[in-house]
Amino acid sequence: DAGVTQSPTHLIKTRGQQVTLRCSPKSGHDTVSWYQQALGQGPQFIFQYYEEEERQRGNFPDRFSGHQFPNYSSELNVNALLLGDSALYLCASSLDIKNYGYTFGSGTRLTVV
Amino acid sequence: QQQVKQSPQSLIVQKGGISIINCAYENTAFDYFPWYQQFPGKGPALLIAIRPDVSEKKEGRFTISFNKSAKQFSLHIMDSQPGDSATYFCAASSKGAQKLVFGQGTRLTINP
After folding, report:
1. Nearest by CB: A90 against B34, B43, B101
2. What is the spatial distance between Cα A15 and Cα A13, in angstroms, rounded to a whole number?
3. How much is the average pLDDT of B95-105?
4. Is A34 within 8 Å of A91 (Cβ atoms)?
């Protein structure tokens, strides 16, 4: 049973560019959340998707956007990249009725140069 | 009010010893308190979690102690092993919030 799958694992982008990160949730899960983890810090909530809608958003600018597809997979898009966007981006999935049972992927390490 | 404060930042324990990590919160709406373990290059993995209606939960060598009046909770790792060396995060969530609020993390090193 596959867990949460994220791609790519590593990515290097130039300041000002745009990036798309992808996530496939754990089998049976229908809710996807995205977190940003800066080096040496705890993960910070970006937003959560359920039924293809953004259900809640953390304190991140509009440059961060997302999408959830009918098969529950999700994308995180970041526009106009800044050096400060360099971080590990984590996807977590859960089953909505058991919202506390989050499973995290291994993340995408984004480096902005 | 959304913060979860975690201490210490780093901790070194001898093999076989007890590792203790502490967290404090302000938001009384929090009703779920998990601990996550993260190895380098991996995402956080759920270790153990507690709800505020109990004061202690034990799973194997891992125990959460919860003090609702003090708004504090802690992770105890008994008989600590080198394989326990990792970064540990406490977190909190409330039913209506749909998100986890994480502490800053504790880097635990178990010396053989």
Report:
1. B43
2. 7
3. 86
4. yes
